[in-house]
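Q: Predict the assembly, please.
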Amino acid sequence: MTRQQFQQLTSQAPVLLDGEIRVGCNERECPEKWVLDHFDTITGALCSFKDAGSVIVRAPTAGANRYRLEAFGLASQTREINRELMRRCRAALESISVLGVCSTTGMNIEPFGELGFEEAVKSFSEQGESLLEGGADGFICHMTDIQEARAAVLALRELGDLPVMVYMGFGQQWLTANGTDPLSALVTLQSIGADAVGFGGTGEYSAAEVIAKIKPFAAIPLFAFPPAGAMSPEQYANSAQALIHVGVNLIGGSSDASPKHIASIRSRLHRSPCCTPVVKSISALSSARRTVMLGRSYPFAVVGERINPTGKKQLQASLREGSLDMVKRFAVEQEQRKASVLDVNMGLSGIDEMAMMLRSVNLLSCLSPLPLCIDTTRPEVVEAALRRYPGRALVNSISGEKERIERTLPATAKYGAMFIILPLTDAGIPATVKERIGVVDIVLTAASSFGYTVNDVAVDGLVMTISSDQGAALATLDLIEYCSQTLRTNTIVGLSNVSFGMPERQWINGAFLGMAMGRGLTMAISNPSSDGIMATVQAYNSLRSHDFGMLMQSGNFTGIGQ
Ligand code: THG
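A: Predicted assembly structure:
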């Protein structure tokens, strides 16, 4: 099954998955090896799901990664076990689709834990390759951690044009052990190319309530595996129907759902609506613990500028010593001052920018709930930082320069990050607003060939100081208005640039911010230590509260906002 065929299948009607196969071995045995040695005992169960109407069935390969098999002394048989299990499932199920299942290594992944990110990727590549050799039609990852889910998606995505579904099992109050909420998981996983995301968890809210809340932000199909508990097949079909009603596109059962339960869902499917994704893309950034929605319907976003050694002697000295203590302090202080995003710039002569950027990204991912803005001119640093970052970051920036379009843009697109468009070219900064708009169009056109839309970018107003050009601020404001009204993109400015070389900079910055907000500005790179700036931001949010008040409320449990 190709990704496009999967998308088509899910757009026509709700798709019936299976229930999980129960394996009858004891705890000291490896379940996957046991199934392989007693395959006859599960063929019946596999086929009964097919007979119940399941269109897609999962192969019992969840624990067959190198790290889990190692516990049974079977690591050296990883490829063989996966290939053989898949081959036999394929043979037993004939025409219907069979997915290879990947699940946790049992370890915490960098930056949260001891297993290196690339080691995790490698292990899922190995498992995925052998599942593919056995005839897998696609993959599903059963995960409880966002970074491990990312590692699996990146590994499986590389194997070919096959769908990769991710099921996230949340714990108490719909949070993972590392604090990821369902909306942040959705934003992160759909940005790196998952083809569908599934949700299960417990807490004050039901799965249907959670899915109803996040559905408006889903650009890909959603799915669920509701537990059957003590429910009769009839009651179970009701609960499944409730999930489909709020926007689930594929539905199956958890391990306690019998083929009868699945057949009961099937008998209702023809009466169920098909809620295909409502958006193609969303303006949102995520960390492992938070989603920040961007745009005029949401609070104004301040991108804290302080983690940047440019012009800061003390930070420079501390980075040159290899210390991230000031980075840590700036992250905490900017969060306390209500920044929404943290800019991270490690461009400084005499330090290894790549190494320091990766160390900072790891540190900040664990330390701060704020999504990151990766600020570097080097495409290889963008690529490496985005690869490790357990969320959806903002890239600062992509201009019309040849190297940015040819190298930074593909690196950014590979991870589905949002990015800032800087309207300048190799020839420099265009003089007129019209020419700057031309550059924005060129970058947007190039980006659209990677599947990007206007929701995925923020156009930089290119603020220059009024001390050298009196008309500079007005040109920026015109560009902001055009992008806001006509292109409908986010807009951003490096606020303090406007007042370089002027007296009373705070007042000029504050007035300029208010003017730009009036023309549609949605974000600013700024120092949140400034009372004047943050007061203006807070007042703006209050003055527009008809928009964001409601969304902040609905964000209470899905993770939107501060
Ligand atoms: N657009 C985009 N990115 C940008 C800018 C922009 N990045 C850089 C800059 N402009 C915004 N970031 C900073 C970072 C640090 C400082 C200013 C802007 C800075 N300011 C004081 C100084 O210059 O002395 C120091 C303030 C302090 O000590 O905190 O260092 O326009 N896309």
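Residues 305-306, 308, 310-312, 396-397, 420, 422, 460, 463, 494, 496-497, 525, 527 surround (6S)-5,6,7,8-tetrahydrofolate (CB under 6 Å). The CA atoms of residues 76 and 357 lie 36 Å apart.
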